[in-house]
Design goal:
With 294 residues, the chain is an alpha/beta fold. Helix content is 15%, strand content 19%.
Length: 294
């Protein structure tokens, strides 16, 4: 009797602990992303998502960083945790980045904010509803309208052609959408003399395109340096990580600096992250000296 051939089902996956993210609860605040040293979580289309089972060790370091309890640990059939795959993943596009939130000094707000708990829509710090009184300008401030420092169009990262002539030998300001609205002198202190790209790491879709576009701006467009301007809220740190990944992947070394802005426009932190080759110069920044703090 001829023996029957068993179908090839492949290797059975082990049953192990793995994180599960409840998309209904998740509001995309991004606090879980820097908590995962393996880079297993990313904000995609406004939600935290597990980008690969092999990158998750199941230890749950991210659980305590979710303000809405959207992350749990489950025992499921899943591919085994792969340290070699994690190393390749981080080297290819998710290099460990400075944890922006812990490095922020205690800074008194310009005006004490009023929090409106009745208007809260979730646990995300970036969505906390606040207001504050008007700041009276100094009498010495010039009353004449200031000219715009914008020297290009478009400005949204999805729309920008990486080889546009205004990128050649230019300093690129990669700014989170909200920064220009928070900083009263954004044009004078941040934009003057720079090419501009704006993006939102929480709400923009198809962000996988952003990494390749930034790399192309450096290698083909001829950008000579990148400054990232982000807000203090956790979800904004994704833009800095994106820039770090682009600088690390680009074939041309370019300096990368950052500035973190508070919701009332004050500078909370800034610094130089080097050029992706390990050349770090802490305590320096390509921002005007009057804006460097922390």
């Amino acid at each position: 009797m001829r023996s029957a051939m068993l179908p090839d089902w492949g290797e059975l996956m082990p049953v192990r602990e793995l994180i599960r993210i409840d998309e209904e609860k998740c509001d995309g605040c991004g606090q879980c992303v820097p908590a995962c040293a393996e880079g297993a979580i990313a904000i995609i289309d406004g939600k935290a998502r597990l980008v690969g089972e092999v990158y998750c060790d199941g230890m749950g370091a991210c659980l305590g960083h979710c303000p809405l309890g959207a992350i749990t640990i489950e025992r499921v059939e899943a591919a085994a945790f792969d340290e070699a795959a994690v190393a390749r993943h981080l080297a290819a596009g998710r290099p460990p980045s400075p944890r922006v939130a812990p490095m922020l000094p205690a800074v008194q707000p310009v005006v004490a904010p009023i929090v409106h708990p009745q208007a809260q829509t979730g646990g995300c710090p970036g969505s906390r509803t606040m207001s504050w009184a008007d700041v009276v300008p100094a009498a010495s401030e010039a009353s004449a309208p200031r000219p715009s420092e914008l020297r290009q169009w478009p400005v949204q990262l999805h729309l920008l052609p990486p080889t546009a002539p205004y990128f050649h030998d230019a300093e690129l300001l990669l700014a989170a959408d909200c920064v220009a609205f928070a900083v009263g002198d954004f044009h004078r202190d941040f934009l003057a003399g720079r090419a501009l790209a704006i993006a939102c790491p929480k709400l923009d879709s198809h962000q996988e395109v952003y990494l390749e576009k930034l790399v192309a701006m450096i290698d083909a467009g001829g950008v000579r340096g990148v400054t990232v301007a982000i807000m203090q809220v956790p979800c904004c740190s994704g833009l800095l990580k994106l820039a770090q990944a682009a600088v690390a992947r680009a074939s041309r070394p370019v300096p990368l600096s950052y500035v973190v802005v508070g919701v009332q426009g004050e500078t909370l932190a800034s610094g130089d992250l080097g050029d992706g080759t390990g050349d770090r110069r802490p305590g320096t920044s390509s921002l005007p000296a009057s804006r460097v703090e922390g």
